[in-house]
């Protein structure tokens, strides 16, 4: 039985149910597109050339334009209220009388990434209902007017856009000043205009921009705006984000920013400000994020002394890549909510302030590339990311509590002494770079306890000695291992076979004495293997297997070791990483450790006869260097399969027989060094057709015959063909060939005409002195006997 209250409840529910149905039916019956709006849209699209790869997305046979891609209509009136063609290749300019401006009820206009050119038409200001304008990432040119009411330059009237919430003109080629009339947009939520190029050294952001007194976010980066940050910015009491990175302001910004009411994003990023540190900014109580990096601010940084006037909510402070000098002030510690400090690339000196220990929320600290020195305080080890590279730090305190550090970059300082054992106690350390310091002693076994979380272990260019410990059994995340340029010895640790994520192994310039680690060929992601300048020995293959695996290998440098034996014809046939290219997100080998650390792999390698330091390794670079060993026999034909190879260095071995003609299949080869071998036969003429081949060296072999006449050959140095007695056709490369005197190592043989000529010259030279000497001796002999004969005659007469 149903009670009265239940009845009331039941009928109430029924009433609500039917009300919802009626409301739903009335609200879900969309009004069809209005005919004149449909025609306006079609005319607008026809104003731009049709791209054959991106045809018109609107079907002219369809009468309801509200169903077209990128179009949104008002459900009740059928008016077009949103036009979103982001990414559509328009490749043209706005017409001054464009049919677009007949869509008077438009609220959202998004034409970003459309390759629109020309100026922004002044008629855009007639869209009084617009709340969003996004014309970013196009090729728009011209100037934004000085004021909304003054339309002399661009004739752009935005003063009527009283409802505008979002305006993005980012990544165009706009010039001129930011118009002061934008201050009329009291409800503006976002204004971004990166890539503006302001003309004239004295141009400023107009004072009237300060009328938006409810401004929340200022971001004017990636322009060439100039001037100083005005003190009046302190009036922006609701500002929480300011980005002025990469600008060139040389005069003051508008003095009155206090009347921007509801602006939440104002982008002046990527310009270059010049001036002293804008300490008045840091009196804004709501300020949370400050990006002033990549400008020309000069002098020391200092903050207002009164703590009550500071910005208690400040979380991110980035002053990187300026010309700040002096010490990092102790007063930085009063911003207790700071989570990230970036002072990279300035001229700060002195010590890290001890007061930084008060910043209990600090997670990321970047002080790299300054002139800081002394001891690193222990409080930093509780941060997650610490970057102190390229300074003059000499020591650090051991942590007094559990370390939370995930990325630690101490490279290029003056640290010395043994490996810091406290690192063994870290639990989440992913990136460790101690390279280019003065560390010595052994690499500790205890590192095995923490290496499971490592992605990169960089110990390059120190004085570590002893063996590389076998600690990699659990290092399944390890991608880069660089211990080059130390004094390590012994064998290569077999536990590296467990590092399935390993991409780079660099053991260059140590004293490692082992056989070739063919077992590394099973690693699926190994891209770079550098064993150069060690004491590796033996053959490169065992049981008729050589270089088995290595399917992802792109660069191998095993030069200057004691490898011997031959290379079978098929030995490179499995190296797929050198036969194909994959699309990569980054053109260089790199690791993204976290939001603040981005590490690029580096290496040293001989290229075009010169030892070069590759600060970045290109993803598409392919190289093989086996030089300076004792490998003999034929050059393997399977090298010709490596279509992506850029560098091939087989010099300083004992290769014999001919140079394979199939090397001409390596169409991307840039460097070919076959010098100092025992190669015979002719240089393949087909090599002259390799247009990319810019350096080659065939010297000190037993080659004969004509040198190929290709353009690349004619550009080589004469020394690239020296010590090949039977090569000819070098006149265009070496000029007139001069006969050099024979050396003790390789006496020169004379041809028959030269030898005959030499004999006659020698005879002539010897004949003259011989006759002269004969006459003199004859005269002396005759005179002597004449005297004796005369004397005998005298005696006999007596």
TrEMBL record:
Q: Which InterPro entries does this one have?
A: Leu-rich_rpt, Leu-rich_rpt_typical-subtyp, LRR_dom_sf, LRR_N_plant-typ
Q: Which GO terms describe its cellular component?
A: plasma membrane
Provide this UniProt record's keywords sorted from A to Z. Cell membrane, Glycoprotein, Leucine-rich repeat, Membrane, Receptor, Repeat, Signal, Transmembrane, Transmembrane helix
Where is the Leucine-rich repeat-containing N-terminal plant-type domain positioned along the sequence? 35-74
Topology in membrane = Single-pass type I membrane protein
Q: SMART domains under this entry? A: LRR_TYP
Q: What parts of the sequence cross the membrane?
A: 7-25, 757-782
Subcellular location field: Cell membrane
Query: Which family does this protein fall into?
Result: Belongs to the RLP family.
Q: What is this protein called?
A: Leucine-rich repeat-containing N-terminal plant-type domain-containing protein
The root-end lineage is: Eukaryota, Viridiplantae, Streptophyta, Embryophyta, Tracheophyta
């Amino acid at each position: 039985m149903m009670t009265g209250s239940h009845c009331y409840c039941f009928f109430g529910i029924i009433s609500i149910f039917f009300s919802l149905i009626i409301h739903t039916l009335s609200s879900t019956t969309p009004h069809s597109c209005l005919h004149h709006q449909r025609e306006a849209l079609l005319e607008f699209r026809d104003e731009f050339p049709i791209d054959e790869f991106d045809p018109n997305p609107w079907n002219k046979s369809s009468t309801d334009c509200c169903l077209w891609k990128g179009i949104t209509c008002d459900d009740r009136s059928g008016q077009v209220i949103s036009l979103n063609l982001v990414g559509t290749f328009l490749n043209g300019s706005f017409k001054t009388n464009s049919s677009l401006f007949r869509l008077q009820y438009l609220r959202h206009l998004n034409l970003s990434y459309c390759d629109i050119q020309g100026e922004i038409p002044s008629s855009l200001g007639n869209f009084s209902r617009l709340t969003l304008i996004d014309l970013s990432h196009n090729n728009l040119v011209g100037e934004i007017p000085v004021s909304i009411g003054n339309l002399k330059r661009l004739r752009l009237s935005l003063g009527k856009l009283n409802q505008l919430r979002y305006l993005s003109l980012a990544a165009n080629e706009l010039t001129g000043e930011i118009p002061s009339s934008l201050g009329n947009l009291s409800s503006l939520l976002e204004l971004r205009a990166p890539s503006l190029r302001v003309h004239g050294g004295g141009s400023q952001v107009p004072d009237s921009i300060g009328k938006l007194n409810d401004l929340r976010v200022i971001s004017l980066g990636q322009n060439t705006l100039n001037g100083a940050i005005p003190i009046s910015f302190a009036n922006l009491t609701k500002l929480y984000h300011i980005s002025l990175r990469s600008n060139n302001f040389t005069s003051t910004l508008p003095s009155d920013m206090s009347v921007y009411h509801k602006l939440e994003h104002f982008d002046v990023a990527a310009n270059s400000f010049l001036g002293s540190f804008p300490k008045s900014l840091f009196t804004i109580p709501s300020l949370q994020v400050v990006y002033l990096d990549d400008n020309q601010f000069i002098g020391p940084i200092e903050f207002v002394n009164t703590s009550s006037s500071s910005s208690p909510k400040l979380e991110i402070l980035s002053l990187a890549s300026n010309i700040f000098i002096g010490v990092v002030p102790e007063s930085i510690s009063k911003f207790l909510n700071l989570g990230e400090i970036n002072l990279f690339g300035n001229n700060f000196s002195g010590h890290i302030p001890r007061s930084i220990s008060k910043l209990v929320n600090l997670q990321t600290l970047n002080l790299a590339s300054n002139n800081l020195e002394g001891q690193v305080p222990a409080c930093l080890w509780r941060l997650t990311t610490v970057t102190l590279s390229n300074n003059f730090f000499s020591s650090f305190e051991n942590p007094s509590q559990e370390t939370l550090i995930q990325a630690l970059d101490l490279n290029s300082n003056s640290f010395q002494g043994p490996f810091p054992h406290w690192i063994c106690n870290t639990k989440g350390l992913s990136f460790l770079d101690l390279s280019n310091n003065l560390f010595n002693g052994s690499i500790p076994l205890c590192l095995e306890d923490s290496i499971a979380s490592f992605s990169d272990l960089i110990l390059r260019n120190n004085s570590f000695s002893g063996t590389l410990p076998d600690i990699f059994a659990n290092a399944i995340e390890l991608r880069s291992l660089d211990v080059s340029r130390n004094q390590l010895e012994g064998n290569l640790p077999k536990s590296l076979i467990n590092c399935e994520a390993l991409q780079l192994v660099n053991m260059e310039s140590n004293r490692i004495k082992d056989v070739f680690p063919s077992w590394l060929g099973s690693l699926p992601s190994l891209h770079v293997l550098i064993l150069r300048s060690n004491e590796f020995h033996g053959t490169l293959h065992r049981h008729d297997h050589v270089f088995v695996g290595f399917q992802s290998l792109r660069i191998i440098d095993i030069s200057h070791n004691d490898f011997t034996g031959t290379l079978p014809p098929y030995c490179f046939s499995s190296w797929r990483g050198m036969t194909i290219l994959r699309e990569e997100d980054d053109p260089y080998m790199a690791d993204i450790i976290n939001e603040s650390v981005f590490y690029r792999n580096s290496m040293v390698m001989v290229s075009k006869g010169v030892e070069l330091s590759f600060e970045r390794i290109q993803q598409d670079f392919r190289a093989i260097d086996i030089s300076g060993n004792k490998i003999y026999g034929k050059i393997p034909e399977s090298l010709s399969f490596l279509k992506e190879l850029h560098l091939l260095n087989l010099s300083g071995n004992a290769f014999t027989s001919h140079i394979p003609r199939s090397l001409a299949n390596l169409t991307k080869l840039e460097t070919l060094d076959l010098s100092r071998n025992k190669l015979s036969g002719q240089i393949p003429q087909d090599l002259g057709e390799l247009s990319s081949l810019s350096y080659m060296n065939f010297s000190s072999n037993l080659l004969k015959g004509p040198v190929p006449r290709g353009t690349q050959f004619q550009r080589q140095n004469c020394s690239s063909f020296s010590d090949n007695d039977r090569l000819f056709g070098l006149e265009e490369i070496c000029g007139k060939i001069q006969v050099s005197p024979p050396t003790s190592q390789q006496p020169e043989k004379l041809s028959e005409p030269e030898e005959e000529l030499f004999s006659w010259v020698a005879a002539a030279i010897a004949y003259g002195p011989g006759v002269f000497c004969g006459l003199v001796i004859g005269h002396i002999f005759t005179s002597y006997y004449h005297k004796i004969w005369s004397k005998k005659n005298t005696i006999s007469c007596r």
